[in-house]
Amino acid sequence: ELGRFEHYMRKEIHEQPNTVRDALRGRLRLAEASAQFGGLNLTARQLRRVRRVVFAACGTSWHAALLGEHYIEKLAHLPAEVEYASEFRYRNAPLDDQTLFFVLSQSGETADTLGALREARRRGFPTLAIVNTVGSTIAREADGGVYLHAGPEIGVASTKAFTSQLVVLALLALHLGRLRHLSYDEGRRLIAALEELPDQIERVLAIEPQVEEAAHRMVQATSALYLGRDLNFPIALEGALKLKEISYLHAEGYPTAEMKHGPIALIDPATPSVFVAPRGGLHAKTLGNIEEVRARKGPVLAVGTQGDDQLARLVDQMLPIPEAHPLTQPILACVPLQLLAYHVARLKGCDIDKPRNLAKSVTVE
Ligand code: BG6
């Protein structure tokens, strides 16, 4: 089943052009520049009444929800919040009948997430789930939802489920946006960008040899910082989590500009920083932040837009991703970071598909 891949994680990273295609399949409504879902079980009228969206999830799914928050805010202009499922359940978080409540889970079996879902149901609110595993407990207990259709994910570190979650969240936000004030043209632009993703991911996968070179620069470190701003902040968090999970190298994700308020104290020649820095809003400020790290002799890797020579000159190595729509760019930016974690772990001889102390789905609280 592994074919030419040594590990499931690498196989699943390479499946992403197809899994993204599968997440989009049948869900685009070109004539209306919108999206459609078979199992949401909510009418357009009900969705127009929504005033707020709340997501609850754990781990990588929680990071996907953080991007979902951006998508909902940017496309639907609705306030959105992201909760750790394990916290939500015990904190009496306010919900009301104009709140759309989602849980996200690859496995559909995570006890903390299931607990959050049951708590919302107990309080009488309809629950929606974004789940990969068909027929899982969360999928069965939710009132409606969306499947990722990413196929079984075997590697403990989640990869293809994450990018599919992002695609589904973008589609949901598009749908909610088009029921409000998002223009037809903006909707069409996003759809075109989503349809380009499989080919663009293919191009990112082709830089794997460069990522391997970057992994050699990281492997001696004991700690690393991952920095990104706006939509790339959740990508920085996810990049850091991947590295921690499978290479046991300590890593922290921070919003780029927050670095100077504390983490900059960690910078030294042995502590690499990984900037998620594709071109776009606030790029000049990010370049300034990179210079601050350089001035303290910190090694710097960056995920940047292909052809961004200014960035490339400033860093030890740039991993290029194609130019893309601002909302799909983060989906591309996470792929080199998945590969980076994989190759650091491989160089360290770690058990990549079965990292120590982790389970694919944690069914205890
Ligand atoms: C963790 C896994 O315990 O559960 C993570 O180790 C995962 O990789 C998290 O992201 C949430 O899992 P799920 O299946 O609910 O998305």
From TrEMBL:
The gene is glmS. It catalyses: D-fructose 6-phosphate + L-glutamine = D-glucosamine 6-phosphate + L-glutamate. The keyword Repeat applies. Keywords: Aminotransferase, Cytoplasm, Glutamine amidotransferase, Repeat, Transferase. It comes from the Bacteria. Homodimer. Residues 43-182, 214-355 form the SIS domain. The active site is at 360 (for fru-6p isomerization activity). This is Glutamine--fructose-6-phosphate aminotransferase [isomerizing]. GO terms for biological process: amino sugar biosynthetic process; carbohydrate metabolic process; fructose 6-phosphate metabolic process; protein N-linked glycosylation; UDP-N-acetylglucosamine metabolic process. It is found in: Cytoplasm. Signal peptide: none annotated. Its EC number is 2.6.1.16. Catalyzes the first step in hexosamine metabolism, converting fructose-6P into glucosamine-6P using glutamine as a nitrogen source. GO terms for cellular component: cytosol. It is an enzyme of class 2 (transferase). GO terms for molecular function: carbohydrate derivative binding; glutamine-fructose-6-phosphate transaminase (isomerizing) activity. It comes from Isosphaera pallida (strain ATCC 43644 / DSM 9630 / IS1B). Its main location: cytoplasm. The keyword Repeat applies.
